[in-house]
Specification:
The chain is an alpha/beta fold and 340 residues long. It contains 12 helices and 12 strands. It has 2 domains: 150 residues, Isopropylmalate Dehydrogenase; 138 residues, Isopropylmalate Dehydrogenase (3-Layer(aba) Sandwich).
Length: 340
């Protein structure tokens, strides 16, 4: 007899952003679509979420719980919320107190996942600026979670996933001018291995197909527009192919995301942030999920920010948060099946 899976841990994110309302909206949307939300709990903020639901007229009963183990039964009544921390709801007004609440929620969620009482972490958006003001010293939540898992940052690979496209930026939050110096064949090979393993372990793709983007227009046009394709990218592709990984490229960026090209690969590895995120957001904005590969824990997040400008106005679409919750549950199920 198989034990029931541990629930998902959903972080609050910055309470001044749209995190609280997309959490509430995602939960009610999944119920309205008759897609029973997977067992989950929000890490803190029962009164904050109750006030947000009331103000925004979202029909989502809040069920305070004292322990994650109560989430399965509490979810029959409403949205389970761990009652260990709380704060006021002041939408569109970021504050140090709100940043501390967001950080504590993230820390507790990571602890739950590492301790096995949560099967995955779903993170709501945070403000990196607000966190930095209280001493946060990480580029983002991905790097924080890598540190919490005692893994080097380079092992935590960001993948953006939607219904029809998955992309991976090989360099992330750096100036575009720095990208050519940061690229190396070793970097591409290292991250491609993590992506291939993640697609197998977390998505059940037994023989993942990777497409590697070019850096320069027309893949360098034989060296006329740059030599990174011949000097860095092609050798990496050859090394991956020699390991038995199904890989193609370097594919020019203007051809990689066409309707004809997308069915030919399971993930596209891109050279820089916008090369990966622009097509994903253009095609899957309301269903795009940020997935962290390469860690012992599962982490997903909606692919959008805090959106302070619309927080509390009832304008935020909860689709990406709902997609992140569903994807985290599916990934947890895939890992459980692989262990069985």
């Amino acid at each position: 007899m198989t034990a029931a899976p541990a629930p998902l841990a959903i972080t609050l994110g910055d309470p001044a952003g749209i995190g609280p309302e997309v959490i509430l909206g995602a939960w009610t949307r999944l119920r309205a679509q008759r897609r029973t939300p997977p067992p989950a709990f929000v890490v803190g903020g029962p009164e904050l979420l109750r006030r947000a639901a009331e103000a925004l007229q979202i029909d989502c009963p809040i069920v305070p719980i004292a322990d994650p183990s109560e989430a399965l039964f509490a979810s029959a009544i409403g949205l389970p919320v761990l009652a260990l921390l709380d704060g006021p709801w002041h939408p569109a007004s970021p504050s140090p107190e709100g940043a501390r609440l967001a950080l504590t929620s993230l820390q507790l969620a990571a602890k739950c996942a590492l301790g096995g009482v949560a099967s995955a972490v779903v993170t709501a958006p945070v403000s990196k600026g607000a966190l930095a003001a209280i001493g946060w010293d990480y580029p983002g939540q991905t790097e924080f979670l890598a540190d919490a898992c005692a893994r080097p940052y380079r092992d935590a690979v960001m993948m953006l996933a939607g219904p029809s496209l998955r992309t991976v930026p090989l360099t992330v939050h750096v100036a575009l001018a720095e990208v050519p110096q940061l690229l190396s064949a070793e970097l591409i090979v290292h991250k491609a291995r993590i992506v291939a393993a993640g697609l197998t372990r977390d998505f059940g793709i037994s023989e993942p197909r990777l497409a590697i983007a070019a850096l320069n227009p027309h893949a360098g046009e034989g060296g006329q527009f740059g030599d990174e394709e011949a000097r860095i990218i092609a050798p990496a592709i050859a090394a991956l192919a020699a390991e038995g990984i199904a890989v193609t490229g370097p594919v020019p960026g203007d051809a990689l995301f066409t309707p004809r090209a997308r069915p030919g690969y399971d993930a596209a590895l891109c050279m820089y942030h916008d090369q990966a995120l622009i097509p994903l957001k253009a095609l899957e904005f309301d269903e795009g999920v940020n997935v962290t590969l390469g860690l012992p824990i599962i982490r997903t997040s909606p692919d959008h920010g805090t959106a302070f400008d619309i927080a509390g106005k009832g304008l935020a679409d909860p689709g990406a948060m709902a997609a992140a919750i569903v994807m985290a549950s599916e990934m947890a199920a895939a890992r459980a099946a692989a262990r069985a």
